Structure prediction request, 232 residues.
Amino acid sequence: MSAKILIVDDEAPIIDVLSYNLNRANYKVYVAWDGQQALDLARREQPDLIILDLMLPKLDGIEVCRILRRECDVPIIMLTARDEEVDRVVGLELGADDYVVKPFSVRELLARVKNVLRRVYRPPEPPLDAASLIRIGDLVIDAARYEVRLGTVLLDLTALEFKLLHTLAQHAGLVLSREQLLDFVWGYDYHDDLRVVDAVVKRLRAKLRDVDPDAGERVYTVRGVGYKLIRA
Prediction:
């Protein structure tokens, strides 16, 4: 079954070029022209991915992202202008998975879409296997079930946040650079703004702290290098 993608933008040329190329790539495409229509379509059609412009009528992209993250974990790729740096960072911290700057390469955007969907689409759960578990103190990461528990609490992580934590756990105690994390987690080895990694780390720490105020410090920043997960 084809993945469903919702495009949210108020510029007809962008809607046209994205719809054409995504349809050619065999995705099922929905279109919203403003923020309120985007929320209505997202709730009704439950897309597998949303391409979301920041500058929208009625509700802007930041507010749409904020509302969606309270309701679901659908992956979001933001479309931003070059001068929207602050909004871009806020969007990432609210839960967007990635962003593309206008004017953008359609080939690049399609590659981002493919990589995001690869993270989200998973095979049916295999039988529980101890080899699929990573235990670091009271942190338990179950790759077979895509679940993370801190003590007895099940964390509510997006697919991207899970993949980041799982990657750090596989290399627990070792420092991974932002470039390495982009390669391992996002699926590409170049991004013009490495803060996309920092934003997801910030979200992950916040969710750990919601369970244990000290747990966020387990994802440790090595200044000028990257991040590591500290062994308990």
Summary: The two ends are 43 Å apart (CA to CA).
